Amino acid sequence: MFNLIHPKLVTLAETEGYTEIVDFLEDYAQGGVVPAICMAPDCDHTADLEPDQRAGFCEACGRPSMKSGLVIAGMI
Ligand SMILES: [Zn+2]
What we know:
Elements (H helix, E strand, L loop, with lengths): L6 H9 L5 H8 L5 E5 L7 E4 L16 E3 H5 L3
Antiparallel strand pairs: 1-2, 1-3
Zinc ion binds next to loops.
């Protein structure tokens, strides 16, 4: 089931310049590199990572908590 209202997904889309999460997901659904965001509550670091990334290393807080937008949305 898709989750298009996850707070981190909203933050990620806004960081990338999107006001609509659906537009963000459509643009990156077929991409080889997808914006990801750190899932730690006190960190909103973003980076471009693999579409299926679920535990990427965050360069801001040092935790393996980077998730791609497609994963957060439940599309992968
Ligand atoms: Zn972080």
